[in-house]
UniProtKB/TrEMBL annotation:
It comes from Arenibacter arenosicollis. It comes from the Bacteria. Pathway: tRNA modification; N(7)-methylguanine-tRNA biosynthesis. InterPro entries: SAM-dependent_MTases_sf, tRNA_(Gua-N-7)_MeTrfase_Trmb, tRNA_methyltr_TrmB_bact. Substrate binds at K129, D161, T202, F203, Y204, E205. One of its GO terms (molecular function) is tRNA (guanine(46)-N7)-methyltransferase activity. PROSITE patterns: SAM_MT_TRMB. This is tRNA (guanine-N(7)-)-methyltransferase.
Length: 223
């Protein structure tokens, strides 16, 4: 993507009512105004669902279209990417979706305790090298952050093409005695996966499937 195109998208994001772009200081010093008030932002009391590392927002948009009784927030630091999802939501009048430009490690400064009902992590970078463990979105530190903002019965979903990420996460969950609600190492061959797992496919997921790569899925609780 050219730099001019990126700048154009950044400018457009500033005009979109469904895009929130807080600065790091207001998140870390506790002055972010929407923390604990996301239902006010949507104007209803429906459950809040997050997609972490949402990319172009395909999954966020797909889930929002399927479930009008839930509010979806796609989170990514790359605003030029989620511009596509934000614009689609505006063009198609999808009112139960928003996009939040921030770093995921700041998530506990963006949402209050018990504010989030569900988290989706879709095709994250598995960060295979040991020195990159701290960046894996299902490591212990991230799980603790998710626990802080999730409701008591809240769930986390991990969908990935990485067998390493799937195995690492399952091992960590079992080791910590956390509740694994469902695990599947090949969702398109084995029965039982939720419709959100099977019916919504990102651009890259379609490429993985064309190459014959199995798509894995885990649903778990942290409480």
């Amino acid at each position: 993507m050219g730099s001019k195109n990126k700048l154009k998208r950044f400018k457009e994001n500033e005009t979109f009512k469904n895009v929130v772009q807080p600065n790091r200081e207001e998140i870390t010093n506790g002055t972010f105004s929407l923390k604990g008030k996301w239902n006010d932002f949507f104007g209803n009391d429906n459950p809040i669902v997050l997609e972490l590392g949402c990319g172009k927002g395909e999954y966020t948009i797909g889930m929002a279209q399927q479930n009008k009784n839930k509010n979806y927030i796609g989170i990514d630091i790359k605003g030029a990417r989620f511009w596509r999802g934000a614009k689609t939501a505006i063009d198609e009048n999808i009112s139960n979706v928003a996009f939040l430009r921030t770093q995921i490690e700041l998530i506990d400064g963006l949402f209050a305790a018990n504010e989030v009902s569900e988290i989706w992590i879709t095709f994250p970078d598995p960060q295979i090298k040991y020195k990159r463990t701290k960046h894996r979105l299902t490591n212990e530190a991230f799980l603790e952050k998710y626990k802080l903002i999730l409701k008591e019965d809240g769930v986390v979903n991990l969908k990935t093409d990485s067998e390493f990420m799937h195995g690492y996460t399952l091992g960590l969950l079992h080791g910590k005695g956390l509740e694994v609600l469902y695990a599947n190492h090949d969702v398109y061959k084995n029965e039982g996966s939720p419709k959100e797992v099977l019916e919504i496919q990102t651009f890259y997921e379609k490429q993985y499937l064309e190459k014959g790569k199995p798509i894995t899925y885990i649903k778990f609780r942290i409480s």
